[in-house]
């Protein structure tokens, strides 16, 4: 079924680029030898050893071709599907990371699944790019009177779900198959790096949303930043975001959603009103003193620790032509820096929601 191609799921060239030894070259990323040298450097004393210990601790309409996953260096990716191109693996290790991220993001929203001002009696909800479907199952429990549909290009959702939830295979970069005015609420989370035309995405969401209904988009920056200078320019932590930003440019699917304000612009262009933006710096790692922020940070780090390789392999392979071994060396340096507790990284997250105007009364 799957084949070891060493190329991206879309069979783009993964030719080894002559990456420079230091940033400032063609893609501003360090080469693999740089991370090997760092990995061989003696370990400095752990600034916060307890910190590391905390962390260790329509399926029916699916055709069999969507199970023909492609493989890069032993990790599986979604099968060929129209224009879709998604950069993370879809195997068990990655799905577990996604479930941990779901918990982290729920904490980020103050133990909520959404921010839009939804009425309790809504009866149709759509989650686009649903992943493991965990958000769908949680919202289906919260709105037992609503039918909830989750769509994705990978059939990675469970079959035992609440009676009011179901999953369908659908490429959100194509015209959506749902009739106009179908949903009271459309939710989209973490689609960065998957969408080439964000305005088109919001146009489809607008069409599928009922007049008076809400659309909500939750995105993040791939950069790990710090406010106290603790994320050093030359660190593996700092390098992380560059893989995604450069890779996103290369595949024509940006990760710079927040930098470019694509959510607000796309919603306003589509015709949404009462567009509201909420920004937050979500900690990564257990460094915050505040117990709630610390809990968030421990979950976000746990999600990354669950599968650093599965997040970054596709981009590292595509931009730099790295082998799995080279990716592992970089990830082990990243793990070491994260566990040291010396850096205080966070990533920016942004939720934007807007309402489709009521149809004008005649
Ligand atoms: C980072 S995951 C986020 C999953 C989920 N929204 C969450 O927040 O837990 C992105 C998901 O979008 C899906 N995806 C990527 N491109 C897609 C497309 N063109 N159409 C539908 N889903 C897509 C991927 O398969 C993956 O499950």
Automatic annotation (TrEMBL):
Q: Where is this region: Disordered?
A: 1-34
Organism domain of life: Eukaryota
A matching Pfam family: Methyltransf_23
Q: Which GO terms describe its molecular function?
A: methyltransferase activity
**Organism the protein comes from:** Stachybotrys elegans
Which InterPro entries does this one have?
SAM-dependent_MTases_sf
| Feature: compositional bias, Polar residues | 1-20
Q: Which UniProt keywords apply?
A: Methyltransferase, Transferase
Q: Which family does it belong to?
A: Belongs to the methyltransferase superfamily. LaeA methyltransferase family.
GO biological process assignments: methylation
Protein name per Swiss-Prot or TrEMBL: S-adenosyl-L-methionine-dependent methyltransferase
């Amino acid at each position: 079924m799957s084949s070891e191609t060493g190329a991206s799921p879309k069979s783009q060239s993964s030719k080894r680029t002559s990456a420079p030894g230091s940033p400032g070259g063609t893609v501003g990323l360090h080469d693999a030898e740089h991370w090997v040298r760092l990995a061989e450097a003696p370990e400095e004393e752990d600034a916060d050893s307890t910190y590391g210990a905390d962390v260790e601790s329509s399926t029916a309409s699916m055709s069999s071709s969507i199970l023909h996953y492609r493989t890069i260096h032993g990790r599986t990716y979604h099968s060929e599907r129209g224009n879709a191109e998604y950069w993370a693996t879809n195997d068990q290790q990655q799905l577990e990371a996604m479930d941990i991220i779901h918990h982290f993001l729920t904490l980020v929203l103050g133990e909520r699944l959404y921010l839009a001002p939804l009425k309790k009696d809504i009866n149709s909800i759509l989650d686009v790019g649903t992943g493991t479907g965990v958000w769908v199952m949680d919202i289906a429990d919260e709105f037992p009177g609503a039918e909830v549909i989750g769509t994705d290009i990978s059939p990675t959702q469970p079959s035992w779900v609440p009676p009011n939830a179901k999953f369908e295979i659908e490429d959100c970069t194509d015209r959506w198959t749902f009739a106009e005015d179908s949903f009271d609420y459309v939710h989209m989370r973490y689609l960065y790096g998957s969408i080439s035309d964000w305005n088109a995405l919001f146009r489809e969401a607008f069409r599928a949303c009922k007049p008076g209904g809400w659309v909500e988009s939750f995105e993040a920056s791939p950069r790990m930043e710090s406010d106290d200078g603790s994320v050093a320019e030359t660190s593996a932590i700092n390098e992380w975001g560059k893989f995604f930003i450069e890779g996103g440019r290369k595949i024509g699917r940006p990760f710079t959603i927040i930098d470019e304000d694509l959510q607000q612009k796309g919603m306003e262009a589509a015709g949404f009103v009462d567009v509201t933006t909420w920004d937050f710096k979500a900690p990564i790692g257990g460094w915050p003193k505040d117990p709630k922020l610390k809990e968030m940070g421990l979950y976000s780090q746990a999600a990354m620790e669950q599968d650093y390789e599965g997040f970054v392999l596709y981009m590292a392979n595509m931009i730099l032509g790295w082998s799995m071994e080279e990716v592992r060396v970089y990830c082990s340096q990243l793990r070491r820096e994260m566990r040291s507790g010396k850096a205080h990284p966070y990533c920016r997250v942004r939720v934007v929601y807007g309402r489709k105007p009521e149809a004008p009364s005649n």
